[in-house]
Design goal:
The chain has 267 residues and is an alpha/beta fold. The protein is built from ten helices and 14 strands. The chain has a five-stranded parallel β-sheet with strand order 2-1-3-4-5, sandwiched between helices. A four-stranded antiparallel β-sheet has the order 6-7-8-9, covered by helices on one side. A three-stranded antiparallel β-sheet has the order 12-14-13. Helix 6 crosses helix 8 and helix 8 packs across helix 9.
Length: 267
């Protein structure tokens, strides 16, 4: 039986998603859903001696006006059952709450409640997370020449140097640029347009524009250049048609692998 623990304070979301989750046989197994409406009650259940770990946790980050409520549940989960995958299901995508979920709690996924086909999306993501947790020996690194992406934490390295915020090297690179880079590497050598990236990010296509995409690419190029030692090394690489490359006039970019000769000069 697939055992899912869900912490959600709003009744209308519980009423909307419960029938779908309980009817879905994830990986051909019946589903048992345990719901807690309060963070304190969920933490008490997690800490209770004899409580069995669920297969997966759905977690609302912000509950009853408290931005820390969901994160307190995450901390209790990690202390008791560190291997249980956690997916945030939230109304606050694209905010500091999503950034905190990835940067500070190493969430497996963050799903926006307000999006088309949310019931289908939720089931797809749960099934993928369960499949990944049941195969712990699978490769969790995406390697492309000197570029390495951890597909669980979304952290990125260039020749062993972790990508950081180019405006403040003491802070990690934000989650959206890292997501974009991973999607481009996974799609390589195919380019991804603005609309395709917006779909990957579950962003509002009316708000995620070509200018937004271009700005994130600029941030990525500067971050990679910083990791490569600065002095415009990575920028030159892009101008030569490798790395993060502009694709035509379609509002698209693509990742083109770095040649072995260039790898020797990067870092």
């Amino acid at each position: 039986m697939a055992d899912i623990l869900w912490v959600e304070d709003q009744t209308h979301w519980i009423d909307r998603f419960r029938p779908t989750l309980e009817a879905e046989a994830f990986d051909q197994r019946p589903t048992r859903l345990t719901v807690f409406r309060f963070a304190a009650a969920a933490c008490q259940h997690i800490r209770q001696p004899g409580s069995a770990p669920p297969d997966l946790v759905l977690l609302d980050a912000q509950m009853s006006g408290d931005d820390e409520a969901g994160f307190s549940v995450f901390r209790a989960l990690r202390k008791r059952w560190p291997e249980v995958p956690v997916i945030y299901l939230s109304e606050y995508s694209g905010t500091g709450i999503e950034e905190q979920a990835f940067e500070q709690t190493e969430a497996r996924d963050f799903i926006a409640k307000h999006q088309p086909n949310i019931e289908q999306v939720l089931c797809w993501r749960i099934r993928a997370a369960l499949r990944q947790s049941q195969q712990p020996g699978e490769q969790s690194q995406l390697q492309q020449g000197p570029l390495r992406i951890d597909t669980e934490t979304w952290e990125i390295w260039w020749n062993g140097s972790k990508l950081m915020n180019p405006a403040n090297p003491q802070r990690p690179l934000g989650p959206t640029p890292r997501k974009i880079l991973r999607y481009l590497v996974e799609a390589s050598p195919r380019p991804l347009t603005t609309d395709q990236i917006a779909a990957h990010l579950q962003a509002d296509p009316d708000r995620f524009s070509w200018a937004s995409y271009r700005q994130h690419i600029r941030t990525l190029r500067h971050s990679l250049d910083q990791a490569a030692g600065g002095n415009g090394r990575f920028m030159t690489l892009c101008q030569q048609g490798e790395g993060l490359v502009t694709f035509g006039d379609e509002g698209a970019y693509c990742w083109r692998p770095v040649s072995p000769q260039q790898e020797d000069t990067q870092g």
